[in-house]
Amino acid sequence: MLRHRFAGLSLAAFAACAGAQTAALNGAVAAQVDRAYPELEALYQDIHSHPEIAFEETRTAAKLAAEMRALGFTVTEHVGKTGLVAIYENGAGPTVMVRTELDALPMEEKTGLPYASRAKTLSNGRESFVAHSCGHDVHMAAWVGAARTLVALKDRWQGRLMFIAQPAEEIVSGARAMVEDGLFTRFPRPDVAVAIHTTNTAYGTVQYRAGPSMSANDTFEIVFKGRGGHGSAPHETIDPIATAARFVTDVQAVVSREKDPREFGVITVGAFQAGTVGNIIPDQAVLRGTIRSYLPEVREVLLKGLRRTAEHVAAASGAPEPEITITPGVGTMMNDESLIRRIEPAIKSALGADHVLLARPNTASDDFSVFAVQGVPSLMMQFGVYPPERVEAAAKPGAAQLPRNHSPFFAPVAEPSIKTGIKITSATVLALMDKR
Fold first, then answer.
1. pTM of the full predicted structure?
2. Residue 8 three-state SS
3. Does the keyword Hydrolase belong to this entry (predicted)?
4. Is 406 annotated as a binding residue?
5. How far, in Å, CA of 32 to CA of 150, rounded?
6. Is 180 annotated as a binding residue?
7. Are the C-beta atoms of residues 255 and 266 closer than 8 Å to each other?
8. Which of 40, 41, 334, 420 is 20 to 30 Å apart from 220, CA to CA?
9. What residues have CB less than 8 Å from 9, skipping those under 6 apart?
10. Which domains does the chain have, with CATH numbers?
């Protein structure tokens, strides 16, 4: 249709007309974002002040459902426990899925913001503070803002919007819960899926890369068994603390000597629980940790090496066989290269080409990858939240790093961050559903 509309024009005139249309569309998006921002900031601060942990996001989901219904979306709640699916039909065309996350983290916020969270909840049987220290509140405000923008500009696109609000991203369980609850059978299967995520870089910028962009994630728990006794007579015991400590050291040889050093892979022990007092050798020690990788073959090396190392250190101590529980997490987040090629001109036009950066592979994980594994071409983009001058200062030798996601001091600058999130989401969807 674009070629027909400009038939008879020279190449230079064609480019000028197309550029003028793009500039006009960017201006229309910016005007909608500015108009809606005061209400979006209020929504952001409300969500920030009332965070909820995984699969308990009932208040948050209800607020987003009300926002989307007010825009004319058909909303289905309680998909995958607390998730929601919002559909907006606008003629024949592709189905584009846009994801946000609902959940917060069981941790205390220490930002000092006037709307800082002081909420508490029970987490693993213990009272804990709750905070949106991963930026999901920014994502939600941008998600609603993008929906508002796209509805206001519905004469510029056609197809089906499928906006989903996913629970339990922090425990990498919500995407799978939604798929198992019929996300792609009860609702239209999307042609593409898009998500955004905050990072501790300069606001007004976005970064992404084709191929592996976030790691696969598996978790493990190992119970090393022993024979308890008095601390003064260790020869009468089998000390599980000594066995577990040996494992913590020895398992790193799997990473350094069995994994291809050119490929990414990490085994981290994050919890070591054993004993009650200093003069008793306990009868067991419990370790918990995570395994991260990009390539399936590396993942297999790490999983096998972890199990073998645990069994061998127990045998070397004369201890019973350990209980090893490996819980599969999510696969590697693979950004679709052809999808990037389709949307990149629009992103560069919306933000400026110098604000669109090549991301380094991220070693964290996100269960947005579940949708890619289901065969949906997917793209996750990371966008900045801090003033450029602070980012530049933090990059100097010896300077302290800016607080990143999951830090109690993570404090995005709301307005430019949310507006950037809206612009890159809107530009992406408009490029994929262009009516011209």
1. 0.89
2. coil
3. yes
4. yes
5. 9
6. no
7. yes
8. 334
9. 17
10. 12-214+332-432 (3.40.630.10), 216-330 (3.30.70.360)
